[in-house]
Design goal:
It is found in: Secreted. Residues 355-404 form the Laminin EGF-like domain. Residues 416-550 form the NTR domain. This is Netrin 5. The protein is mainly beta. Among the domains are: 42-219 and 235-247, Galactose-binding domain-like (Jelly Rolls), CATH 2.60.120.260; 365-404, Laminin; 425-507 and 516-546, Beta Barrel (OB fold (Dihydrolipoamide Acetyltransferase, E2P)), CATH 2.40.50.120. Helix content is 13%, strand content 33%. The strands form 13 sheets. Strands 1, 2, 3, 4, 5, 6, 7, 8, 9, 10, 11 and 12 form a twelve-stranded mixed β-sheet that branches. Strands 34-32-31-30-33-35 form a six-stranded mixed β-sheet. A two-stranded antiparallel ribbon has the order 13-14. It is flat, with a radius of gyration of 38 Å.
């Protein structure tokens, strides 16, 4: 037994060496082979990169010492670049082309001075995401942020909206290191979403850069006069510039190497490809590409073609129809196979063309060889995908032959049209028609809640222009009751927070509500969003109504005026007709302003 134990121990050690020693561990995979989130090496992206220094007035600096800013910097190799000194008030601009996209963590500048600078400071740090075509500021440093940049002195973004905007602060006191004073900028410090960086595309774009630019702005003469008696601009001398970060590999690579052209590219894992591992490699199109996160590595998945094809494509329609499990569609199936997965066999005398799938309604031209069922697009149904599914109607685009029917609050709009009975007839609102209404109110909607088949609106009646003889409507808070179906169809269409002119009749379909004392607005009510210039006209109608100038309705009269025309429900769009009309009512000349309504709400005339 002792020897057997030793033999088993030796075998296990040999197996351990084979697994862990001869195969170095890949950070992008767990020990059992499962993919995991990984990051490329953290480097100084500016190391060895030639720096372009230019002055807005003096032009490009041709001094060879500019390369000293990004060389090896240590106590045994202290170099210093000094800008040409003069009285010009231009700005010095230092640009570092990084050559590819990096996710920047920090940018640091080391000055040659050993002590704290006494002169005012005015520096901007900018980035470019498109190799220098456009620039965006990331940070400003100044002794007078408000005066130099129009920004408050601030080190922390107050909101998530502000976290991708440049802040301004006074960098003093600077960090003291061996060789000089250091100004360091951290791209994520003071950003509210920094703790959730892997799930924040906004911050991921914020730290992404292909080029970095540092601008030393001229100091105003007023500031110079308070700091020094000399009008000469402050002396600029830098010894080191660093840009710390990682190659932007989107969590799918642990290494970033130079290719044959000298360009840095990610060594992609998880079957991803591209300089930034931002696409899936060929044949791994079963899922859409996603950035890897610590909780979801999101590797690219191979298409399922059962060994009958080595080419496929991704289809978002198929992916959604599969419940987001897979969207790969195999192409050029071999071995007499067909279908999305090349798993349906057909003989030479029975080809896939026998499916007869509709060219627009089906995805592809293959089907289930047993049932003949084609794979339909969204909203399409039928064995051959030749008709729209319930809840859909025919569209105009060949890419979406069937589109979902529009609904309002769950009600089909086509049903609403027949229910609301629209009309495009114009009706002139003058004193005569105004007097036929039971109530004309200016109301503000403050809230709403459901109550069985009704919606109860909390309203504030601001002005009562007219009420019926039996109503008890007064200015102040009230409840307005609207049937569920009427509100769903938009007759009337009401929105909380807005002010409306309500025009209705007590002799409508539902009277005054679930109880006789409640005010109701239904499909026979006209609800118009309030316009302030209506008030004088309506007050004029109200004044004439109080003076007894409203015509008397005689139910014995016959004719369309008091029957069909004024009993029909009409759909209006509001139009005001300016001008004055003379009308003779009861032998008197009445001067009134005419109103003409055209609205998508129903107006029940009595």
């Amino acid at each position: 037994p002792k020897y057997i134990y030793r033999i088993l121990l030796m075998c296990s050690l040999v197996f351990f060496k084979l697994i862990f020693w001869t195969s170095p561990h890949n950070p992008c995979y767990h020990l059992d082979g499962r993919p995991r989130h990984c990051m490329s090496e953290f480097i100084n992206a500016a190391y060895g990169v030639p720096v372009n220094a230019s002055h807005s007035i003096q032009g490009l600096d041709r001094d060879g010492n500019v390369t000293a800013l990004t060389d090896l910097h240590n106590p045994h190799n202290l170099t210093c670049w000094m800008a040409r000194r003069g009285t010009e008030r231009g700005e010095w601009v230092i640009t570092i082309p990084l050559g590819r996209r990096f996710e920047i963590t920090y940018i640091s500048l080391q000055f040659c001075q050993q002590g704290e600078p006494s002169d005012p400071i005015s520096i901007s740090i900018l980035k470019s995401m498109n190799y220098g075509r456009t620039w965006k500021p990331m940070q400003h440093y100044s002794s007078d942020c408000q005066g130099n940049f129009g920004l408050p002195t601030q080190t922390v973004a107050q909101t998530r909206h502000q976290e991708t905007e440049a802040l301004c602060s006074d960098p003093r006191p600077l960090q003291k290191q061996r060789g000089g004073m250091v100004l360091a900028f951290s791209t994520l410090d003071g950003r509210p979403s920094s703790a959730d960086f892997d799930h924040s595309p906004t911050l991921q774009d914020w730290v992404t850069a292909t080029d970095i630019r540092v601008v030393f702005h001229p100091i105003p003469k007023v500031a110079l006069s308070t700091a020094s008696v000399s009008p000469v601009q402050p002396f600029l001398a830098l010894s080191d510039l660093q840009v710390g970060g990682r190659c932007k590999c989107n969590g799918h690579a642990s290494k970033c190497r130079r290719d044959d052209t000298g360009r840095a590219v990610c060594v992609c894992e998880h079957h991803t490809a591209g300089p930034d591992c931002d696409v899936c490699e060929d044949f791994y199109f079963d899922r859409p590409w996603h950035r890897a996160t610590p909780t979801h590595p999101n590797p690219c998945i191979a298409c399922e073609c059962n060994g009958h094809s080595d080419k496929c494509r991704f289809s978002m329609e198929v992916f959604q129809q599969s419940g987001r499990r897979g969207g790969g569609v195999c192409q050029k199936c071999r071995h007499h196979t067909a279908g999305r997965h090349c798993k349906r066999y057909f003989s030479l005398c029975f080809s896939a063309s026998a499916c007869h799938c509709h060219p627009l309604g089906a995805v592809g031209h293959w089907c289930n060889q047993t049932s003949g069922q084609c794979l339909c697009r969204e909203g399409v149904t039928g064995l051959r995908c030749n008709r729209c599914a319930p809840g859909f109607k025919q569209g105009r685009s060949p890419l979406r032959p069937c589109i979902r029917k529009l609904t309002v609050w769950g009600v089909d709009t086509e049903e609403c049209v027949s229910y609301c009975q629209p009309s495009q007839v114009k009706v002139r609102m003058n004193l005569e028609t105004y007097c036929l209404k039971d109530y004309v109110l200016k109301v503000q909607l403050r809230g709403m809640e459901r109550s069985g088949p009704w919606w109860q609106f909390s309203i504030l009646i601001q002005t009562v222009f007219r009420t019926g003889s039996t109503s008890q409507v007064r200015k102040g808070p009230h409840s307005l009751w609207v049937p569920d179906r009427d509100l769903g169809c938009g007759c009337p269409a009401l929105h909380v927070g807005r002010t409306y002119l309500l025009i209705g009749a007590e002799e409508g379909e539902r009277g005054w509500g679930p109880e006789e004392s409640r005010l109701v607005a239904d499909r026979s009510t006209l609800a118009l969003q309030w316009r302030e210039h209506w008030s004088p006209k309506l007050r004029g109608f109200r004044g004439q109504d109080k003076r007894g100038r409203c015509p008397t309705y005689n139910p014995q009269l016959s004719g369309a005026k008091h029957t069909g025309v004024f009993r029909q429900r009409l759909l209006f769009r509001l139009v005001w007709l300016h001008g004055k009309n003379k009308k003779t009512i009861a032998g008197k000349n009445v001067l009134n302003h005419s109103l003409c309504f055209h609205s998508f709400f129903f107006f029940h005339q009595c």
